[in-house]
Write a structure and sequence with these properties.
The protein has three helices and four strands; from the N terminus they run βαββαβα. Helices cover 30% and strands 34% of the residues. Strand 2 and strand 3 form a beta hairpin. A four-stranded antiparallel β-sheet has the order 2-3-1-4. It is of the alpha+beta class and 88 residues long. The chain has helices spanning 15-23, 49-60, 83-87; strands spanning 2-10, 28-33, 40-46, 66-73. It has one domain (2-75): 2-Layer Sandwich (Alpha-Beta Plaits), CATH 3.30.70.920. The chain starts with a strand and ends with a helix.
Length: 88
């Protein structure tokens, strides 16, 4: 399983519509509006790198109102360290 975070910039005023369309995709684990240089952060998972590329290029980037994306591929999704697991 491959996991990636997609950082999205939207056209001004289209954040809510883009977020609704992203959340409607069955391949999206989570998506949130955020403050900062990006408007939306999306978590996606695929069987392999090729499927994640298809999700981003074939589905997410085709959404109207989306201006720019930056994809961050997780190095090892099986080793999911959180603050609670680090404290143990």
């Amino acid at each position: 399983m491959v996991k990636a975070y997609v950082l999205i910039k939207t056209a001004s005023g289209s954040e809510d519509e883009v977020l609704r369309n992203i959340l409607a995709l069955s391949v999206v684990e989570e998506a949130h509006k955020v403050f900062g240089p990006y408007d939306i952060v999306v978590e996606v998972r695929g069987r392999d790198i090729e499927s994640v590329v298809e999700i981003v290029t074939g589905r997410i980037r085709r959404i109207k109102g989306l201006f720019e994306t930056q994809s961050l591929l997780v190095i090892d999704p099986e080793l999911d360290l959180t603050s609670s697991s680090l404290a143990s």
